[in-house]
């Protein structure tokens, strides 16, 4: 299902910095009418509001606090596009002493948060004609890098949930896009030690807009992502995106 962001009202989680901030700016550049900048602290999105005026509306949303997600869905009841960009990262291997703690922390935001977002906003999207739902996953949802074992596991789980949402939300006319960036030049990328190979976050924003317009199920924005995406394409088309019986 093709979706054009022009003249649309959008909600972006984690919109105050990094990829999320660039997504907001890219949406507005491509003609979005209004963007709810959903962040843990609305004051952190003040800079976006100052630049873009009332086209950006900061609202509180914390992926680990379901009540804030429900409140955001009530407030942003006019959205037809939801982009769940927010997420967390701990650098932990399967053999690290803090592996279980790190995985629990990442699962709460990256997976349980995604489910809470979907449950809160699916009825909103349906009421507004279907629209689209975008989930920021990662190349690590398809390929585990041992030094980031727990993060990879949480993103693999998020990708699995995204696949389910694609089928479930199709019934109400909602397009679902799973985005799989590689190393991106953000604070998270810096903390992970990936600055030297990272690409600018603008590639993610532009790829999301283009993939939505093309009606794609997956988006692979940067060089590493495209390499993995090319290798994954056949499996995605013949297995992930195929209409297969569960029986």
TrEMBL record:
<dbReference type="InterPro" id="IPR020904">
    <property type="entry name" value="Sc_DH/Rdtase_CS"/>
</dbReference>
<dbReference type="GO" id="GO:0004316">
    <property type="term" value="F:3-oxoacyl-[acyl-carrier-protein] reductase (NADPH) activity"/>
</dbReference>
<dbReference type="InterPro" id="IPR057326">
    <property type="entry name" value="KR_dom"/>
</dbReference>
<comment type="similarity">
    <text>Belongs to the short-chain dehydrogenases/reductases (SDR) family.</text>
</comment>
<protein>
    <submittedName>
        <fullName>3-oxoacyl-[acyl-carrier-protein] reductase FabG</fullName>
        <ecNumber>1.1.1.100</ecNumber>
    </submittedName>
</protein>
<dbReference type="Pfam" id="PF00106">
    <property type="entry name" value="adh_short"/>
</dbReference>
<feature type="domain" description="Ketoreductase">
    <location>
        <begin position="8"/>
        <end position="188"/>
    </location>
</feature>
<dbReference type="InterPro" id="IPR002347">
    <property type="entry name" value="SDR_fam"/>
</dbReference>
<dbReference type="InterPro" id="IPR036291">
    <property type="entry name" value="NAD(P)-bd_dom_sf"/>
</dbReference>
<keyword id="KW-0560">Oxidoreductase</keyword>
């Amino acid at each position: 299902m093709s979706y054009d962001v022009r003249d649309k009202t959008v909600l972006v989680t984690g919109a105050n910095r990094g990829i999320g901030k660039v997504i907001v700016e890219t949406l507005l550049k491509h003609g979005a009418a209004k963007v709810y900048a959903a962040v843990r602290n609305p004051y952190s999105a003040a800079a976006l509001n100052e630049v873009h005026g009332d086209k950006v509306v900061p609202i509180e949303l914390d992926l680990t606090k379901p009540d804030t997600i429900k409140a955001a869905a009530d407030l942003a009841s006019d959205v037809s596009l939801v982009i769940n960009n927010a997420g967390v990262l701990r650098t932990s291997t399967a053999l690290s002493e803090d592996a279980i703690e790190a995985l629990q922390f990442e699962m709460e935001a990256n997976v349980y948060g995604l489910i809470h977002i979907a449950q809160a906003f699916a009825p909103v999207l349906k009421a507004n004609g279907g629209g689209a739902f975008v989930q920021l996953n990662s190349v690590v949802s398809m390929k585990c890098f041992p030094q980031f074992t727990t993060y990879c596991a949480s993103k693999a789980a998020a990708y699995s949930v995204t696949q389910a949402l694609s089928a479930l939300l199709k019934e109400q006319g909602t397009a679902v896009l799973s985005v799989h960036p590689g190393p991106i030049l953000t604070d998270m990328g810096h903390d992970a030690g990936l600055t030297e190979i990272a690409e600018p976050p603008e590639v993610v924003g532009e790829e999301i807009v283009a993939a939505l317009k093309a009606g794609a199920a997956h988006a692979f924005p940067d060089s590493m992502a495209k390499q993995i995406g090319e290798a994954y394409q056949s499996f995605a088309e013949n297995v992930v995106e195929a209409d297969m019986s569960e029986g």
